[in-house]
């Protein structure tokens, strides 16, 4: 009887662990929930897929392979921009008044339980007609799970990544708003 109890306990713990490991980042969860609203610039913007450092060197900015791809990141930026009212049209191809490019430089997990994420993105906004850079900046975001939120599996890692990405996009929107808003 004790062996069956031990067996059931091990199976239950394994299922809980695997349940946490099955969680992936979803596009919806990386879009900030509350974004500032701005007056329209009357212009359009083309948002390119982010460049993601494909081969991180261990110990230099990243410890593991990137968890978010360039197109998924771009889609989150596009959906976030749509909520702000800054631009009359937001495109992912074709021509526009402005072009926004991004380069994900770092996606680094830290902490004993990988409960801290450091996320660094280089953004550049170009006025296409003038052919000049309007704004560029490295935006650093940090997200940390509290001690109560440290749980087993990939779900924890996904939550940390999502929090850092949301914060980074929220900062981007604020910078664009302060630079371009009428």
Coarse structural class? alpha/beta
Distance between the termini: 74 Å
What is the helix fraction of residues, given as a range? 25-40%
Shape: elongated
Number of helices: 3
> What string, H for helix and E for strand, traces the elements in order?
HEEHEEEEH
Largest sheet: 6 strands, mixed
Based on DSSP secondary structure assignment, what is the total number of beta strands?
6
What is the element layout, followed by pairings?
Layout: H1 2-21, E1 44-47, E2 51-52, H2 70-84, E3 89-91, E4 98-110, E5 116-127, E6 132-144, H3 154-180
Parallel strand pairs: 1-3, 1-4, 2-4
Antiparallel strand pairs: 4-5, 5-6
What does this structure look like?
The termini are far apart. This protein has helices at 2-21, 70-84, 154-180, and strands at 44-47, 51-52, 89-91, 98-110, 116-127, 132-144. It is 34% helix and 26% strand. With 182 residues, it is of the alpha/beta class. It has three helices and six strands, in the order αββαββββα. α2 (70-84) packs across α3 (154-180).
